[in-house]
């Protein structure tokens, strides 16, 4: 409680409103792009923790862990909305889930040993690469028609699960462009990515919670690497707005959806690179 004594009531109210606004945007993105909202939540929490003076050694870990925890309910709502509209492909999900689970386990182990700077760099680089791919990939570009065989699908799942866990994002950020390159319709890629967010976020959040137990310099009201204040303020807003985003996704064309996805990731990446060099 002494930590909060350094800040005025108005400042703390502004922080609370910022977290709720983050949840609103994250919920819309979860439903609209199937990204689980983490691509919004992680950089915002990172910069908020920076302003609060949270130790750099734990800042990114808490941002990622808290993000993964908020994705759990959001991904459930978003997945159900897409499933009801027929845009979630169970066949694709079944092929990728085994590899995703293995990837999450690998990411969980690495999250306990990698520094905050490394996690930040991973987030910024992957976000930029995905943005550039979505922005400049030619229409009709594809690697092949449909998913590869069991080994290839397993490798894709490991990559999606492992990197998503380290970034604190839902699987859609990586699975959407990958599935798009495999000629999966964009709306189906988004819906399936939303479901993958649940598979990633549950074990991922548990891992960050466990890895952060007993670590010093964490912000107050933080369980492991999961900040309960951020969780309490962000989740209601994301759950409310995720269905709205899913409805919007079905009302706009696929080209615009990809442009929005790329623009948002590009801006997010620049923000994270700024946090690394400053």
Distance between the termini: 29 Å
Radius of gyration: 18 Å
Poorly predicted segments: none
What general form does the structure show?
A: globular
How many helices does DSSP assign?
10
Helix content: over 70%
Strand order of the largest sheet: 1-2
Number of strands: 2
Structure classification: mainly alpha
SSE run:
HHHHHHHHEEHH
How would a crystallographer describe the biggest sheet? 2 strands, antiparallel
The amount of beta strand, in percent, is: under 5%
Mean pLDDT: 83
Structural notes for this entry:
The protein has a two-stranded antiparallel sheet with strand order 1-2. Helix 3 packs antiparallel against helix 8 (186-211). It is mostly helical. The chain is built from 10 helices and 2 strands. The two termini are 29 Å apart.
What is the compact description of this entry?
A hairpin with a 2-residue loop joins β1 (222-223) and β2. This protein has helices spanning 9-33, 38-52, 56-84, 90-111, 116-136, 150-167, 172-181, 186-211, 228-249, 254-277, and strands at 222-223, 226-227. It is mainly α.
């Amino acid at each position: 409680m002494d930590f909060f004594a350094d800040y005025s009531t108005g400042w703390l109210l502004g922080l609370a409103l910022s977290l709720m606004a983050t949840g609103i945007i994250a919920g819309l993105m979860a439903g609209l792009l199937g990204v689980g909202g983490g691509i919004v939540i992680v950089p915002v929490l990172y910069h908020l923790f920076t302003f609060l003076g949270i130790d750099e050694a734990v800042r990114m870990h808490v941002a990622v862990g808290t993000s993964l925890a908020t994705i759990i309910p959001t991904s459930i709502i978003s997945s159900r909305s897409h499933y009801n509209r027929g845009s979630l492909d169970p066949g694709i999900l079944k092929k990728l889930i085994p590899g995703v689970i293995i990837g999450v386990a690998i990411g969980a182990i690495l999250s306990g040993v990698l520094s905050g700077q490394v996690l930040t760099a991973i987030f910024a680089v992957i976000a930029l690469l995905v943005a550039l791919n979505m922005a400049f990939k030619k229409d009709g570009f594809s690697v092949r028609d449909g998913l590869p065989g069991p080994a290839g699908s397993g490798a894709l799942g490991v990559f999606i699960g492992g990197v998503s866990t380290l970034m604190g994002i839902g699987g859609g950020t990586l699975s959407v462009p990958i599935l798009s390159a495999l000629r999966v319709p964009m709306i189906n890629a988004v819906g399936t990515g939303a479901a993958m967010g649940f598979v990633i976020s549950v074990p991922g959040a548990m891992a960050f919670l466990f890895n952060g137990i007993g670590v010093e310099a964490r912000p107050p009201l933080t369980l492991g690497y999961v900040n309960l204040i951020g969780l309490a303020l962000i989740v209601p807003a994301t759950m409310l707005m995720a269905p709205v985003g899913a409805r919007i996704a079905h009302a706009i064309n696929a080209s615009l959806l990809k442009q929005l996805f790329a623009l948002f990731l590009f801006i997010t990446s620049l923000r994270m690179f700024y946090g690394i060099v400053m």
